[in-house]
Amino acid sequence: MSNEKMTEKLKVIGKPQPKIDAGIRITGKAVYGQDIKLPYMLYGAILRSEHPYSGFSIDVSEAKKLEGVVCVITADDVDCNNISYRKDHPILKKGEVNCLRDEIAAVAAESKEIAVQALKLIKVNYKPGHGIYDPFEALKPEARIINKYLKDTGQGKNISHKFLYEHGNLDEEKRKSKEIVSNRFVLPRVTHCCLATSNITADFSPVTKRLTLYSSTQVPFLYQRDMAHALKINPSDIRVVQVVIGGGFGSKLDMYPFEPIAAILSMKTCRPVQIIFDREEEFIASPTRQAMVMDIEAGIDKNGRFTFREANIVIDNGAYTSWGATTPFVMMQTFSSLYHVPACRFESKAVYTNNVYAGSFRGYGNPQATFALESTIDLLAEKLGMSKTEMRLINANFKGETSGQGLTYYTCGHKEALEMVIDKSKNQNSEFGIRNEKRFLFGTGYASMLHVGGGAKIYRSDGCGTRVNLDDYGHLTIITGSTEIGQGSETVLAMLASEELSIPISKIKVINTDTDVKPWDVGVHASRTTFVAGNSLLGAISKLKIKLIKKAAEILQCTIDELIFVNEEIKSEHKNNSVRIEKVVREIHFSQPNELCTENFFYEPSSEFQDKDYKGNVSGAYAFAAQAVKVEVDTYTGNVKVLDVYVAQDVGKVLNPMGLTGQIEGGVLMGVGYGISEELMVENGRILNPNFHNYKMLTASDVPNIHFYPIETNDSQGPYGAKGMAEAPLIPTAAAIANAVADAIQARIYSLPVTPEKILKALKEKNIKHK
Amino acid sequence: MKFNVISPKTKTDLLKAMKNETYFRFGAGYTDLIPEMKKMEDIGYSIINLAQLNDQTFRNIKRGQDVIRIGTLATAAQIVNDEFIAENFPVLHQAANCLASSQIRQVATVGGNLCTASPSGDISCALVSIQAQCEILSESGNLRLIPIADFFIGPRKTSMKNNEILRSVIVPINVKHHEVHSGFLKVGTRRSMECSVVSLAYHILTDKKAIIHKAGIAIGAVAPTIRYAEEAGNFLLGKNISSIHPDDSELFANEVLKYASPISDLRASAWYRSEVLFNISKSILE
After folding, report:
1. Closest to B191 (Cβ–Cβ): which among A113, A702, A764?
2. CATH architecture of residue range(s) A3-30+463-603
3. How many structural domains are present in chain B?
4. Minimal Cα distance from B188: which residue of A?
5. Is the ipTM of this complex over 0.90?
């Protein structure tokens, strides 16, 4: 069926649908981790190191004596496996601390206040040493070993994870190049700023020996496995109940020490234990986006076609490793495959330091890579004397392309997206360029992005299970393995089911929070939920429909191919008679074949694992986007005002325009913050701004005009043609802002954020040169 | 966190509480006090809560013949909504309007902004530029009046004694003039919830021929206290505001800069603060 014809017939898909959980959230009925109160619950608190690198001895005897304290633990009291993706992270540290977050003791007490007071009674004798805070220092031959727990040290001293990727003939392409640019880009630490701070409530039952965790994890099944490994218990004895999650953005992809600590305290006391971070602790003790230094060399031939790219990247891993150390998987895709490029060499090292450790964050390395690459493209265009938009258009990715890395674009809206934002940003808005006093300068910048849009086959399975149950009253329950972290996926699932079965959304429930109930899913990441969980749901529904239609054909005495679902009925198109779906369900249930209308389905995307050289078609689909940004720069203060952001994104197919717009706007604003204001400042391992006062997260008054143009390429792999879209809007924004600022002030800032001070300095240096 | 709270309803109750308590802090809007208390191990003092005080001298903005009397419990929002202030003292209106966020402006008080004595206090900076006076009430009920420039003696330090409370600020109504050139420039990264990195308050009165006959200039976040840049103001006297030579603008900016002794901190370097102060100072004459 042609796209137009299909769209015409759709009743739910493509129509704006408020999130099905909006009501409970705005009325305060949603149960966040902070709202959990269990009978006999204790309050946990963690003592963290005062020094980023130090030996220590600890005495908890006074804390234990405090009335109301039920349990105090240190490393000596626990028998656990190390955690993290590289198993290099002890839950409680013994004898030595390696970063400021390090957990050295924990308390469970009758009240929060008592727990905090008990922490103060713990005597710690520190012997601070000289920490290593610069990854380049850590790479020097004389540097000491920072993380002593990493077993596989084959990657080199103080290297947690190294990636090397190549395609094409680099030397030949260098020779072909008319122009080559080579630059260093520096990226800051930024943090997620989830509105709900980190939280966990652990409830161990001494009777059943089972552990229930009320958790905000994004990856409940991996979490269950990781927790079991850490605590040396059976994963099936752990039930993960996900609370309403007040922001994830990747921060809840890993399990962190506070979570097994709560579990241990509960196992030791046989009472529920809750740990909730305050805001300062959240800033200090939750993971950040990777700070990194990127050396990029790239070339272009005389016709403006890209020849090669070479990227050498040093990532500040911090003291321990998280999933975030695998962000080069994504970064290398951008260097190897965003715009067509014949040759690419990519090398990255995640290097241990005594800084706080990095984690995963929406975009997963891609905002960093895109900033460096898109800045480089502007520099190449300037050097060749070619228009920046023209250069992007002639090198754009295309449908049917298989990139050097082996990514195959069955659909690709890259060029269309570029053309859209170039065209739309030409029509100047009212503010742009009006204040033409010499004080204000105006500029436009462009950037594209490529990201996985159909899951990412990194873990052994990238699948998702779904169970659907249609009850005797015609209401549908969807039990999905996938997780809602505010992104709106459960609404999209309900919409898909509603479209398929003609059952109104009000009669559809989505159950997605309990590992004892829901089928397996790898977790929320890689913008995969709509694509993978959507396809999984459609698989289950298709089985359900077959069952219903068989019975309906019996009832209506017709053939199954003439039946359609409409208005909660199954209708014969020829005979013009119909039967209510709920009646069909009851017939199946209460007479032959005496079955329930319940079906299971597990969907595994058709994507491939990459080989040892990181080549292969890793995702079921790829998302493309382009953004154009217009800025006003105040040359007196260096302040950047982001006026307009034009976003064109290949989303495959718009499923819920309202949810989509929300994701685009939220993502863009996160990107603007990354571009101009946010930075978690760290000096000698200490965080200088662990508060919203000095961590400059933007506010509602900083929101620019966001113009969104969805591009529908109807990917045959996606549910109704949709691709993943949720990380994308953040990815090119900072890059486009930096390009716009460079366009305005005719000088380039090679690091983020592009702060007023950097701009004023660049202007000053430029003026000195001109004089 | 345990501490004692006393909530006087009348001036008499207030003075009594001030006499009875040895260690106390005043709480009005609590926008600074609560974050401060959160950092403390033990509070160690009582809170005299002013939120329920009914005394109108503390609460109102009242216009007299020669002065406006602003009670220190007046909120930033009250200042923003006062039409007379908006028309005659744009500097004060603008300063109040860019303080923190709309929500915080509903509770943050003029007295809190002054008594916190932050070098980057926005309302404080505006009040310095218009040479307000501080009316201070002692526990024995005595009143004294001091120029606001003498009120700030260091970062987070005022010239008030332990047994005193700031009751009102008194703003002299503009002398005879033809036009008011007045405004508040706040430099920071965000457009709200921002603490000034550099601020400049100016309040300039001109006659019919656009000749400047009164000029108050104050600067914030560039010295240990908010500074009244008296010589910079004097430099402008007698000049025609509509035709100031660019060289004079720069000379003026240099005069302003003489009052600055900025430091480098998390939010900006001393270099940046000086550059920006110079630039925005000259901008008010462009």
Report:
1. A702
2. 2-Layer Sandwich (3.30)
3. 3
4. A639
5. yes
